[in-house]
Amino acid sequence: MTIKLCAAFIIGFAAALITGLVFVPFLRRVKAGQSIREDGPSWHKTKAGTPTMGGVIFIVGCAAACVGVGYSAFADGDFGHLFVLAFALAFGAIGFVDDYYKLKKKQNLGLTAGKKFILQVAAATVFVFALRQFGFISPALYIPFANITVQLPEALYFIFAVFAIVATVNAVNLTDGLDGLATGTTIPVFIFFSVVAFTWGESFMARGIFSSGLAGALLAFLSFNFYPAKVFMGDTGSLFLGGAVAGMAFAMDMPLIIVTVGIIYIAEVLSDVIQVLYFKITHGKRFFKMAPFHHHLEMGGWSGKKRTEKQIFTMFTAISILMAVISYFGVFNRYGI
C-alpha cells in the first residue's frame, strides 16, 4: 500500500509538471487571460492577462495517478477513487463553463450565482445518492475527536450532505484569491487524507490513491502558481478542488473533519458572511477592510501592516499543516487501530 500511495504521488506530480510545461504556453498563445475584479486591491490589476484555467494541470495529474496506480483497485471492484474523481470533475466542469464565459465576455463575471448554485446542488445530490447506493456512507454522522457516531434520519443526513458539499466547494473557491493560496493550503489537506487512508488499511487504498495523486499534482502546479503566478487555476481548478475536498471527506465517511482540516476555507467563507451581514446591519460600515479574510490582511487590516502575498501564503499554509496534523489525531483510531 505504501508503494502505491508513493507511486500515485510521483505520477501525479510528474504528469502535472509535464502538462504545465505544455499547457501554460498554450494558454498564453490563445490569450486566455484572467480579468481582475474592479473592486479588488488596486495592485492586483497588474495580474490582468495572466493565463487562467490552469486547474487543468493538476486535474490531468490526478487523473493520471488514478488511472495508472488505481487500475488494480478498479479491477478488484473498488471504485472509491473513481467516484471522487468523477465528482470533482463535475464541479471542475461547472468551473470550466464559468471560466469560458469570463474569457468570452472579457470580464470577471461568468455564470450567474443562481445557475452555479443549481448545478452544484445537482452534482452534490447525485454524488451523495451514489455513495449511499454503493455503501460508502450511511446516515450515521461520525464525530471526530469524540470518536462516536450519531444516527440521523436518512432525509436529514441527505440534506446535511448536500449543504456541506456545496458550502465546502464555494469556500475553497473563495480561498483562491492570492497567488498559490488555494494550492498551498490544500496540499496538506490531501496529504492528511492519504495518511488517514494508509492508517485505516487496504479497504481505503483507492481513496488514498486519489488523494495522494492530487497532492503530488498540486505540488507540481504550485511551481507555476506560486507568486508571481505564471498561471491561475481559475474556477476550473478551484471548483474541482472544492469537489475533491468534500468528496474525499464524504467518501471516507467523516464529513465533519472539514471543520478542522479545512479551517482556512471556513475562515475565508465566514469572513465573507460577516462582512455582508455587518454591512447590512450597520447600513454601509465594513467589519473587514475587504473580504475574504486574505484581502483584509493584504490591505493592512487590524495591525495596520500590509501583508504580502508570500507572507499570507506562508501563514495560511502553516495553519493548514498544523490543522491537518491535529485532524489526524481526531480520526486515526476510528477503527480501533
Overview of this protein structure:
The protein is an all-alpha fold. The protein has one domain (2-254). 67% of the residues lie in helices and 2% in strands. The protein has a two-stranded antiparallel ribbon. Strand 1 (140-143) and strand 2 (148-151) form a beta hairpin. Helix 6 (154-175) packs across helix 11 (263-281) and helix 7 (181-200) runs parallel beside helix 9.
> Any idea what the shape is?
globular
Overall pLDDT level: 91
Helical content class: 55-70%
As a percent range, the share of strand residues is under 5%
Uncertain stretches: none
Number of strands: 2
User: Main sheet: which strands, in order across?
Assistant: 1-2
Total count of helical runs of at least 4 residues: 13
String of helices and strands: HHHHHEEHHHHHHHH
| Radius of gyration, in angstroms, nearest whole number | 19 Å
Tally of structural domains:
1
